[in-house]
Amino acid sequence: MTNPIGDIEKAQVILVTGSNTTENHPVLSSYIKRAVTQKGAKLILVDPRRIKLADFAAKWLRPTLGTDVAWINGMMNVILKEGLYDEAYVNSRTVGLDDVKKVVEKYTPEFVEKITGIPAEELKAAARLYAGAKAGSIIYCMGITQHTCGTDNVKSLANLAMLCGNVGIEGGGVNPLRGQNNVQGACDMGGLPNVYTGYQKTSDPAVRKRMAMAWGVSNLPDSTGLTVMEMMDGAHEGTLKAIYIIGENPILSDPDQRHVKEGLGHLDFLVVQDIFLTETARLADVVLPSASFAEKDGTFTNTERKIQRVRKALTPPGEAKEDWAIIADLSTRMGYPMNYKDAQEIMAEITRVTPSYCGINYNRLEQDGIFWPCTGTDHPGTPCLHMDSFTCGLGVFHGIEWIPPAEVPDEQFPLYLTTGRVLYQYHTGTMTMKSEGLNRLAPESFVEISNEDASSLGLQDGEAVKLSTRRGAITAKTRISLKAKSGTVFVPFHYAGGPANALTNPAIDPVSKIPEYKVCAVKIEKIQGGI
Amino acid sequence: MESKETLFIDGKEYPFQAGETVLNVAQRNGIDIPTLCFMKNASPTGACRMCVVEVRGARTLLAACVTPAAPKMVVKTNTPDVMKSRRLNLELLLSSGHHNCLVQDLDMDSWTDFQLRSLKADGHKDICPVYGDCRLQELAIKYQVRGVRFEPTEPRHKIEDVNPFIVRDLTRCILCGRCVQACNEVQVNNAISYGYRGTRSKIVASGDRALKDSDCVFCGECVQACPVGALVPVQDILENDPSKGETRLVKTTCSYCGVGCQMYLHVRKEKIVKVTGVEGIGPNYGSLCVKGRFGYSFINSPERLTKPLIKENGAFREASWDEALNLIQTRLGKIKKDTGPDSIAFLVSARITNEENYVAQKFARAVIGTNNVDHCARL
Q: Is there a contact between B290 and A438 if contact means CB atoms under 8 Å apart?
């Protein structure tokens, strides 16, 4: 997030898109709901599903799946044509508006209506509302990023925010919500194929040299590594021989389950380090028991870039160990001794090699967390990014054309399928499904379908159906719901018995390598005689 | 911004900002005015009248939480009249529900038939589950009040325990309204509200239905807000028997979504028995969601991995750390030698700590020699 969570209540207009906030980030959603009910903010919700936030929205736009660039361009078309943009901001802080102007010219509300199904007048009203706000906050999540055009979607939102002068101000910003407790931290720590900690590029020789020196090795690899999806391909092709997986369950979380399972099966050697024997761990050659968050000291970095303490409350069960201790032990055995005494000592090393974390220490985190960048022990941290200027100087506009999703409905697979989470379960369920209570509230997979679609297929509520795509098939119970848009069905991805990712399309965004979880084409059939 | 306006509390002069209440000014200056229904970050209701103070010129005692500070106002917080009023309020509150803790009976002779009867009532045979952690009890002890002055009202409500997380015992409810504020003003889930009128007043969900049949999403904000034993986590009924030993609190960060809520783990003998939100700091200021507050049983799950496992002929067997790590060392070493470091890849994790991710990517890059490092940020 460019802005802290608390800023949501300072916005006049909040645009939420691709985020079912009340179910996926419940506590954060309260900020949105309070802003609307108590602070007079107006909510623009852009989401095909009638999610809970629709009850709070001043404007609810319901686009066809995978048409985000089109409606964002359409809003910019209106804003530019009506002269509603922040000219002073655009002139002083950005470059490249002409590029956007050229592209969005043809995205008139009428043209956009044809692509997205959003009535032209509704789009105009939403554009005027957003542009008219002194501070407008954009909040998005995987509904924006998990597309083959995910990077385009994000850039388009950034265009819209910059056009209206909403980046680098209190209550504004472009705010992606992180789905897992420490996604932000895993990225910050160099858990990516092309960067070390603090997004220092592995391709930069000066950075490599500095890291090699800090780590006491003669040289470090310079080629960009593989992403998750590329790893699975490499495993299939036989170029990748071994994978070491820590605390992830790609069999359920990655698209095209069969491809992942086969890929992992091809490996010579698979190590999985986890707190449970997950679907993925079952395929491993060696499984290592690790400590849960309640059994270790350390830090997580949240979606607003706030580094917060994790504290040990219990000793790990049996012989389970902290993940860092396991790796350090293995490293020592492999001839590179890692003799960290505790997590605090590791943090001290992180701060030495990471400019954005360099002012962090556990003493400072004792009472409350600190927002990075924090560039010195006397630096207070940075809740709001890009305040006076963009980190990279001027904000750059990018004119972006809409391209359709990799797969759209056709005669054979006539419906759109989208996937996501439900409130009472979490990700692949390794944690939540151990709770009897949560399972009572959300026991099994389902397919959420509109009344119209259900009746045209002759389906009853609760009836088991077969869903199939070009990748695979699952069965799930029908849930006829007002949430569903006609022509689009939704399946949660938590459940191993009815795994949504047996259906999803592994087509990926060319830049971010994110798979298109949020759109593919599906067929629904009655099961004759039931199951 | 320094204000020029001042008022006097117990003889001392304090500045205040426009819009502040007498309670705000008192709390900011460390003056103790007892509160029960008052909730930070929600609009004050003045329902419980515990915070009454004497204001010169006022006809009656005023509730500090709803009385705006005014220039030259003279406030007294502990006059005999104030004390008398607070004690009377407490006596009324104690009689308004089923408060069968020791406060009701400091000397054992005064048990009434009613109390004996209600002790035997269904579900009430045990001591109140929030004994020792009850604001009403705390105030009753502080003001030396017993619940024997007025005839207690008959319990009118059945205990509701048909959902997995929250036990609602409205016989202990004092209608302070904190749960309604928590639900409607803090979490804005709008699931509960006041229902009925007068002596039949009751906190209701969706037209007086069970929570599980209402809009309730089991965030438990109401449970944390409840000052008595009317809303209690199911787990508390099962676990929070003081005879099982002390609990200690460990402040940490939630491990579900990326919001990073600050929470207290309540630990008793190597077991998490309860989770509550940390009040006063962001990002959650005491709030949690259903997963953070109630979804902790995975930690003490018997299905946790406790020993390294090695697969042999398609089946796992337990192994020592030495054996498992030596095997990994040998296999990774050989693969690195035979097909190069880039034939090995690492998936680090959005679930583990920064420190652990750092060590893992360092191991991949500096020890194995590959940039094949990724995690499920995209998934």
A: yes
Which of B327, B332, B373 lies at the smallest CB-CB distance from A225? B373
> Does residue A236 lie in a domain region?
no
Q: Is residue B33 part of a domain?
A: yes
* Final residue before a domain boundary, out of A177, A209, A228: A177
Q: What b/e string do you get for B87-100 counting C-beta neighbours within 10 Å, with b at 16 or more?
A: bebbbbbbbbbbbb
Candidates A38, A225, A333; nearest CB to B325: A333
How many structural domains comprise chain A? 2
Please state the pTM of the whole predicted model.
0.93
Note whether B233 and B317 are same-domain residues: no
Query: In the numeric block, which tokens belong to residue B167?
Result: 């036990």
Partners of A466 in beta bridges: A475, A525
Domain containing residue A490: CATH number: 2.40.40.20
Query: Domain span at residue A89?
Result: 5-177
Write out pLDDT tens, residues B112-138.
Answer: 554 555 555 545 556 678 877 899 989
Long-range contacts made by residues B112-118, C-beta under 8 angstroms, separation at least 24? Answer: B112/B148, B112/B151, B112/B152, B114/B151, B114/B152, B114/B154, B115/B152, B118/B152, B118/B155
B152 and B237 co-located in one domain: yes
Mean pLDDT of chain A: 94
